[in-house]
Specification:
single chain; 187 residues; mainly beta; L,D-transpeptidase catalytic domain-like; 5-stranded mixed sheet; 4-stranded mixed sheet; 2 helices; 33% strand
């Protein structure tokens, strides 16, 4: 799988806003900025541009949104400035046939969350299951810090409800999706 890197730099009329992603990148020694093609800048936010080259599913909406394909176990972050275009695309692990295909909105976010003895980061909830909310989050880890699946296993059905992502992709989706962001789920 080859990564296609596409960047759009929007000139800002002043200093760029500082957000959680920029602080994480700076602490890792990587500077985000107009000269770095690995980032998309807008007036409100910026995220790293990472795509697998997988085409956006047909009939997956228009405008700024998150697209989740259950059958392909892929997520696309789609920006609409200046036109609709994929700014990030990656493999995930969800559950077959859950949630039902349709259009949802992000209704809740938690930086850290737990489920039994498992811990997850960057929880972004967008649908309601029969017992719990369904959301995007990092691969869960045990109390000892061991991930319950590897990043190499992303792209296959491994979850009992939510949509698992790598930590980097979970952080990017977290930064991309304020409350109210549209989520389109395709079969």
């Amino acid at each position: 799988m080859t990564a296609a890197v596409v960047a759009l730099c929007v000139l800002l009329g002043g200093a760029a806003p500082v957000d959680a992603l920029q602080r994480r990148q700076a602490s890792a020694g990587r500077q985000a900025g107009p000269s770095n093609p690995d980032y998309v800048w807008t007036r409100e936010w910026k995220i790293p541009v990472v795509t697998t080259g997988s085409p956006l599913p047909a009939r997956s909406g228009v405008g700024r949104r998150i697209v989740y394909s259950i059958s392909h176990q892929q997520v696309w972050l789609v920006d609409n400035k200046p036109v609709d275009r994929v700014v990030r695309n990656y493999g995930v692990s969800g559950r077959r046939n859950l949630p039902k295909p349709g259009t949802y909105r992000v209704f809740s976010k938690s930086r850290h969350t737990t489920s039994g003895s498992l811990r997850m980061e960057y929880m972004v909830r967008f649908a309601r299951g029969s017992r719990l909310a369904i959301g995007f989050h990092s691969i869960p880890v045990t109390r000892s810090g061991r991930p319950i699946q590897s990043e190499a296993e992303l792209g296959s059905f491994r979850s009992s409800g939510c949509v698992r992502q790598s930590l980097a992709d979970a952080a990017a989706l977290w930064d991309f999706a304020p409350i109210g962001t549209v989520v389109v789920v395709t079969p």
